[in-house]
Design brief:
Elements (H helix, E strand, L loop, with lengths): L13 E5 L26 H13 L4 E5 L9 H11 L4 E6 L4 H10 L4 E5 L5 H8 L4 H14 L4 E7 L8 H9 L3 E7 L7 H7 L4 H9 L3 E2 L10 E4 L6 E5 L12 E4 L4 E3 L8 E2 L10 H12 L25
Helix pairs in contact: 1-2, 1-9, 3-5
Bound molecules: S-adenosylmethionine and iron/sulfur cluster.
The site of S-adenosylmethionine has 21 residues, from β3 and β5.
Length: 325
Amino acid sequence: MKLFEDKFGRKFPYLRLSVTDVCNFRCEYCLPNGYQKSSSCFLSTSEIINLLNAFSELGTEKVRLTGGEPTVRKDLTIISKAISTNTNIKTIALTSNGYNLYQKAEEFFDSGINALNVSVDSLNPEKFKKITGQDKLEHILKGIEQARKAGFKKVKINTVLLKDINDNELPEILNWIKNEDLSIRFIELMRTGDNVEYFKKHHLSSEIIKSELESLGFIPSLRKQDAGPAQEFEHAEYKGKIGIIAPYSKDFCKTCNRLRVTSKGDLRLCLFGGEGYSLRPLLQNENQIEELKNKILELLHFKHETHYLQQGYTGLTQNLASLGG
Ligand code: SAM
Ligand code: SF4
């Protein structure tokens, strides 16, 4: 099947779907005051299936379930089971803060989730607690172990790079991946509507990590043609890999391969776009699939070539919990 593309020739094999805005953490750069209750209800399983069937007919093969914290949704495994049995989506990925992994890793795996990203911003328990508001580092590391035992072959770890907080932790991280087949991704802190002061204080270019890795003999991994924005580095003496996600770098948007849908059914063409387009009225009945596909193709026409973060424009995104990061 020919994969749909935008007017700049970018293809979209990958959809990020937020299933809830709710979160049980208070990450300083995301929800420093915790989740504030909102009134709307989140997409139901049947709305999600109608959405994914349309995307899948357009050629999308991978969905990432995210949030907020997706694992706080009680019916998460009902959703993932429904996706694996009622759609042609091949990869069901989950991005989680790891809080519920220790208890539920097996249930997640058995429900059809087959790729896992866990956020770990520091390997120092005190710093972890300061960043996330939760004294749970050890519990989360145990959860990652549990996930691998349950069958998740490759676990990716997301680490937001924070100046003067975790920017000196590369040695500990390298120690971790020496004998473990993990992929740790340093994500540059992104400015959002809510975190302007924090961003000014803690944003750091990932070039620093890149030069440290190169000086240690790490080399860039070969990039697949449809690879997303992470640049990975590898080393013969390390089992794991280090990835870098640098949204402020030149050409970052050229490799954009994803669209996003919020937990209330708005299509977002860019993490930092100024528009959300409600697809919800077209998710109510499976007979609306042709209309829904046409709507998605029509809206894709409005996707810009790049974001305007360098100019300080963060679009609608007040925090990434509202859109799934
Ligand atoms: N709650 C889940 C988690 O933390 O993994 C999923 C949602 S969270 C919004 C997805 C990813 O976005 C996490 O890895 C998080 O650290 C990252 N993130 C959140 N806000 C960010 C920001 N302002 N800049 C860079 N990454 C951010
Ligand atoms: Fe919650 Fe994830 Fe945001 Fe942290 S980054 S507050 S875990 S949504």
